[in-house]
Amino acid sequence: MENACVADMTLSANYPLDGLDELIEDTRLSAVENLDIVSIALPRILGAEEARQTRDALEDNLKSSFGLQLTDVGMRSSNPDKDSLLGLQPGLWFLVTGKQSSEPARALKTVVRDTAYVTDQSDSWAILDIAGPHAQAALERICSVDIDQSAVDATRVVRTSMEHLSVILERPETERFRLYSPVSSARSFQHMVSVSLQNVV
Amino acid sequence: MNAPSSMTGAGRIGKGLLDPGKTISFQFNGRHYSGLQGDTLASALLANDQRLLGRSFKYHRPRGIFSAGAEEPNALLELGRGAYKEPNTRATVTELHEGLEAHSQNHRGPLSFDVMAINDYLSSFLSAGFYYKTFMWPKAFWEKLYEPVIRAAAGLGSLSGEADPDTYDKGFLHTDLLIIGAGPAGLAAALTAGRAGLRVILADDDFLPGGRLNAEQMQVDGMPGSQWAAASYAELLSMPHVRCLLRTSVYGAFDHGIYGALQRCTDHLADKTGRRPRQILWRIYARQTILSAGATERSIAFGNNDRPGIMLAGAVRTYLNRFGVAPGKQVIVFTNNDDGWRTAADLSRAGVAPAAIIDTRSIPEPMHLPGVQVLMGARITTTRGRLALRSVTLQDGQSIPCDCLAVSGGWSPNVHLTCHQRGRPVWREDIAAFVPGTDLPSGMRVIGAAGGSLGLSASLTEGHQAAVELIKHAGRHQTTSPAPVAEQESARITAFWQVPESRGRAWVDLQNDVTTKDIALSFREGFRSVEHLKRYTTLGMATDQGKTSNVLGLAVLAQLGGKRIEDTGTTIFRPPYTPIAIGALAGRSRGKHFRPVRQTPSHRWAMENGGDMVESGLWLRAQWYSQAGETHWRQSVDREVQQTRRTVGICDVTTLGKIDIQGRDAAEFLDRVYANTFSTLAIGKVRYGLMLREDGFVMDDGTTARLGETHFLMTTTTANAVSVFRHLEFCRQCLWPDMDVHLISATEQWAQYAIAGPQSRALLEGVVDAPFDISNDAFPFMACAELTVFNGTPARLFRISFSGEMAYELAVPTRYGHALMEALMEHGKAFDAVAYGLEALGVMRVEKGHAAGNELNGQTTAGNLGLGRMVSTKKDCIGAVLSRRSAMNASDAIQLMGFVPEDKSQTLRAGAHFLLPDAPETTESDLGWMSSVAYSPTLGSHIGLGFIRNGSNRLGERIRAYDPVRGGSIFVQVVSPHFVDPDGERLRG
Amino acid sequence: MLINHPLLGLRDASEFVYLGDASLIDRPDAAADNAAEAFHDYLHLRDNPAGVHRELWYHEQGDRSWLIVTRNTLTHEITDVELARDAALRRPRTAGDAGQ
Prior knowledge:
The structure holds three protein chains of three kinds. Chain B is an alpha+beta fold.
């Protein structure tokens, strides 16, 4: 039998935030559990012209499949389907997409082929949305980076540490922030965000 | 004026800026009083004619209110009760609220008859440095007698001894412009900057914005100053890009425009039980900063200048104008400057005719005050009145009765924050004060009184002008609104520090009971540097940090040395500017918030199945799984080890660091960072790797799998996951920037379980999906594959062993980790599978002789670990060159060996040192140490791993394991470190 | 302190990990005759000046870049920040560089 084993069992998925959806006064905390995250690394080529060609080839692949542009570090691009590309390191991006696959890296590899190295990160991060009028004030309690609308809008992505944890922050809408924190400590982080919110509402 | 005196005390002669309709009841020393909304505890007590508020630090002298602000040295009270009790709180900045309870402190017996006041009569024995001189002998008395007595007598308030019940928070703010101080200068700056659209933070200690405008009778833009302040503040509140932080002390200036600020959120509320934090500690990142913190008045040293009723002249105006309280009925002003005269003028205007004005200067009267006795060129030599001031005596012997003395020795700009980055203030003779130097913290400018411009008009103009310059600097559109207008008052001063004819002690520092005599004594004994003076006399220490006393103390010292003040120097100001509760510094980092917890994928399963959890870094891991009937952890661990070696055991090893490495040069990169070679590793194979530091010592170890031509997966130890990643990034970016190598952490991505024991393959054959073949031929020791398990879940399987058994590690995406643990245990029932924890893992690795953290301690070489042959001599790698140093390859170097106790019933201890049986217990005889021990249920005795000189030549030798710390030594035998299956037949089976 | 990251702007120093003297990027040639001595000097003889210093900082809680920060150790004034990789690429090429 193809792809079957002796044990008559299948494995079901569990998420650390377990479908969290909490309204604290007028601001909502919710877990996002239906996105794939894959890192994309641009091959390093010596020579300016060859390097530019390599980058263009990767960008062409991402544009044709996702309509997403390669961004500089700290910048974010997105498409109408709400897929986004986050520039996190020189030559490294995260693709965040709702088009889920059982093996996201393998799926993306068929798109980028040899124009990039890909690694599945979907299970590495727990995603927490905080949305509402008190979202920014709550995050000011734990985020040392300036997240005012004048500094962080939908075109930006910030990677920093909050409460000793490595966190990626984006602001897809004025009153909505999306926070990616390591999956093993996601409950600690969610607790810290909850307390921040309770302290400001 | 409508004086609600019947409600809030006889001292209340007007309403000031308060609302007479809102009375507040509070308690002081158990008695009930009334005050008004907007009062401070000090103003309410003064209104109720309460002058005596406490006892001084050393001499237990009666003390009252001295100031009207943060500089208060005297009026320190205990607030609240039980766990909420807070000692040493300044009554002058405590906002009155319903139900406030305050107690005086530092007295035994009633406040009016403190038995410790005996110290006042012993003052000649309690001079500066009395500690060091008096309690020298006999030596044995210090610990038994002197110290307990001194400890009982020292200090001011007392703590509750209970945990702080309040919550605290912290936060981060960013701004174009931070304005410190919402007085006239700060408000003018904030208005101009805010109107131009700059992001502004305006912070002030007070709960009412306006600073001295609320304490004076001056006009701004044709309206009362307090009214202008209120209107300006209201406009600022309406601007979304301006954040106003009242009740907020900016306590420190740090590098690069970073400021610390403490916001008090609930201290002023009657109901403190809400969930809001009591205080917030802000870190403010400011591109530019305006310091408009004003100035602090100081006193003059004369005999008995510390009695209740003696206060700063500016404070008298504050109580009069802001709070509608007359601090006395017969008030005398004693001044060396024109500003003091305004106190007399305001008193006259309020109907409290001053009894006299005494000016140290022999100049024409600066203003005409009808009906007031004026004494120019006069000095106060002493005062009378035990619990409250009754009279003052002048240099000519004349005595004038009074119940309040308003003293002004001049104003000292609040330069503190300008000095937190080692800036040094400079002396300005014309105002007899230190002003900020040129070496300010980056991005800071100082305006108004803080900068030495002691006048309202100048403050307003400077505030406006500073903001205009910053707007220009920021490239913003200019507004055309003009600077607010006010008259410029006179602030002429002739420095006058101490009355030479003083009779009795003349206080310099009220809080620390430091008098001019103490300074003179210190000087005579050779403590002539201002820093020495401070430490010898304690001048300028404690909660007020000498805000009213530093300059006076310095001036007295300068006079003693015949030097100018600017040549005498100042002490260094350090944060915090005002006291901060320890709880606020801790913020929310208490208990559960102290640090985050990392949970493994099997965490829930462990909690449901007797898992006993232990912290391993941030991770929580199961040490063992207790079963019914097991009463000691060893029973659980022994069972787990035995069952794993008999059938199959399952252990969560997710915490190992995993680094995904890709690139055309990935193989070459691994050759350079590992001591052994990886470019020869075949796809689908795993190899053990040893990583050195550049100094040649071992840094970390782990296995690395080759998943593809350009794709590797490295594992690190749990403890070094972060530091190895950092090191690899350093190598990649800084050493070999040409390489095509990419690193990303996969630690969190995969839930990984070790499946070990003779039945491990049989168990896995039932869970690995067809058509994957994991028979020994198809999937031998050190093989790896990407496959699927349990009918379709993607997985990675590695045939590696830490236990010495036939073993695998199986990884699935983390979301399936919990289900995998459950499924493996369920499917494993048929194989008598057991879950094992960290402790059994450790026992089995000691039995197998694998090095772990205790052996990879940063001081051991590959040779020490018995892995010397792994360091390739054919290639360069990190650490290769220095690992070849002769001393690191000495023939008698320590080697990792196994140890068993001679008497099998004995317990081994890690940390014991090895000695020859008859060798003395000296460092010279030391042969090495025991690094790891365990009870081996397999061997039925304790076993140990350790490092011993020339170990491989000592097999069978009898050695003493000496443990002086925990006592005793036992004899052990040196054996092979591989206690179980030394030839590796099991893991290849 | 704030470090002016060349790609991300001002970031709090708490996001960074400090290593030390920037000369650590100049790893000696292991094949040279005096390799042992050169490595000894490289590893153990580093400058620690009171004043202007070029030092390595790693943006661990950020973009994972190693930076060379020119900082006055007395005043903490930072006058220059660049990616360590850019500085490393300016070096004369040696036998240790990747053959691609």
